[in-house]
Specification:
Blueprint: H1 3-31, H2 49-70, H3 78-103, H4 108-111, H5 118-142, H6 154-161, H7 165-196, H8 201-214, H9 223-240, H10 243-264
Length: about 270
Amino acid sequence: MTSFDNLIPLLMTLAGFISAAVWARAVRDFTLSRMPLEQCEPRPVRWDHWTILAALGIWVFADTAVVSLLGLDSESSPLTRIQASTYSGLGKCALLIPLWVYAAGANLRDLLPLPGQWVGDLKAALWGLFASLLPVWVVSLLIEPLRTANNGHPLIRMLQEHPSVQTVAWITLAVLVAAPLCEELLFRVILQGWLQDRVPPATAIVSVAIAFAAIHANSWPDPLPLIPLSLILGYVYYRRRSYLTNVLMHALFNGVNLLLALSQGPTS
């Protein structure tokens, strides 16, 4: 066993204690009628029905275009599928951000934290990361009996079966960059932002969390632990209204899980 193998369990144990402390503090805040995380003033963003339909159309179009351009089919290699997912995610961002700016009226604060708010947004991202770890790990343990050799997460299986430098590089790009950028833009900024103007925040957060888990249903039962993650991502966005805060939290969470997968080593 290498020093890296010894270090990972120690770091995960430490992260678990921090997560428990975050939840203990959150429970105390709730009992004192306080909400965790400092709230930023919401800014008016004009999400109408046509803009939402355009955003969903862009999401479907990007996936369809990448599949067509790369000629994906049932015989395509796992690496090709990861590359396609990465291209699709980055393409969605390239199309959705102009929609956000020109159709919905986003400004610089929506796109980037203002200088005086960098520290607060970073703290919020770290808070969200540690708040998500414990509930996600608990749900993951509870669903372990549902797992088989054939229904694990496809990215984790790919890392374990084909642990080449190229594989690790593409998966890292997909889960740390492309997925957080495009998924937080669609689910939190666009869908949750639209719903929060029409229904109570809790309803918006829960509805988007279910939708977020549903798009990952092809790797059952992995969508189940994604529900608490998505609920916390939704809460962080509700309190901070910062796209990059959510992107950073999402990327950090994926990074922790990528590190865990790498530490397990290849399967025989």
